[in-house]
Target: Cryptochrome/photolyase family protein
Amino acid sequence: MKTLRLVLGDQLSSGLSALEDAEPGRDVVLMIESRAEATAWKHHKQKLVLVWSAMRQFAERLRREGLDVRYVGLDDPGNRGSIAGELCRVLDEGGFRRVVRTACGKWGLEQALLNLDLPVPVETREDSRFLCSRSEFAGWAEGRRELRMEYFYREMRRKTGLLMDGGEPAGGRWNLDADNRRKLPAGLAPPERLRVTPNPTTRRMIDRVAHGFDDHFGAIEPFGWPTNSQEAEAVFQHFLDDLLPSFGDWQDAMAWERPFLWHSLISPALNIGLLDPLDICRRAEAAYRQGRAPLNAVEGFIRQIIGWREFVRGVYWLKMPEYGRRNALDAQGALPWFYWSGETDMACVADTVRAARDHAYAHHIQRLMITGNLAMLLGVDPDAVDDWYMVVFADAYEWVEMPNTRGMATFADGGIVGSKPYAASGAYIDRMSNYCRGCRYDVKDRLGDNACPFNALYWDFLDRNLGRLRGQGRMMMPLRALERMGEGDRRALRAKASVLRESMGVFSR
Model:
């Protein structure tokens, strides 16, 4: 009687808790390509290629290490289409004394597996690849009136020792975000990016997805994502050597037809387990200690990993399933069609959507302050925003996507994740990008035919949600500016915003 060890498509780490005591000859590793998971959202074609190619290569790696791997392909006879269904089928065949698995990253799948009536006992282990366990985060959150990433991040710095000089933060400050908000000067271009050439397994998966999932979103080529740990290591090393030194200065900048800039591009690999978060943070810290990268760049990178990434996962598991129903601003609108096509004269939106279409990627400021900000200003239903982010990005998994969209991007959670709505007019986009320079809209105009749509929508958003936002301390200044406006100006802005919402197809469902 053997142990069956279940490994999911976002658990492709040799140090996975479900595999830590696996023994060749005594255990079987079960890996399943699930049509249910592939089509729950019509994931970007490049994400399907990434996950399935990486799964197959990880299975081969385990076989080379002597483990018996039972790999159930999407088109294999008898595949029931879901992970729970296939697990039941394999166990019904007999021969196993228990199941060992690592807890899922998706609340719905975790509940489905926990509620299965299986013929053998199941041991569910904590996902130790994260630095803060679910119970540890719940303990940190208990009794706190507000959950703020900044204070959690400081605890994680102390726990890991990263960028600590004794009991104090390196350089005397915990957070150097204020140093990382520079607009990209004209003529400055990032180094040429290392994009991975598809290996034979990935090439076969590109052909398979191109023919079997042609109704899914996005271009399938050029495909440049790493699909095994060696490729992921090469991409990360390129970031350390060539990009990290300037990453901090320009991490919030945006530029026309430059989707990658100095960003690491490791999140798709990191979120399926091809890189270890603590290892990459330690190596980034070493670059600072050795004088190869400045503190503002390294602190900003480490904060994204041990601060933000760990924080949103903690919030997700602490607040689900209720979190997925939150709609604090009662937004009911439909998502505009151009979120799928990129066919809009708003240069910033067109460039961000096209980056998502062509690369399954946009960096965090494009996601937050362009597509997320616009959806919030328009009053788009957070369910529709959730769905869009899950479909279009290669690194999107519900634990990381939902707190970012319902929390940061749309303020649908009412302030659990963020301390205020990240609402902005065209002035912010102009300050952080070169988009406005080539846009047909006038970023300084609010009401004219060629006025930047973000401007009227911003003031209308504040006006529509005045009662809900009064208690948000960080919103006092813009709300006072709104209240100082004459009623005629506010009425004109409301009318302009209404015309814009109608022209974009945003209507109550």
Q: What stands out?
A: Residues 295-319 form the longest helix (25 residues).
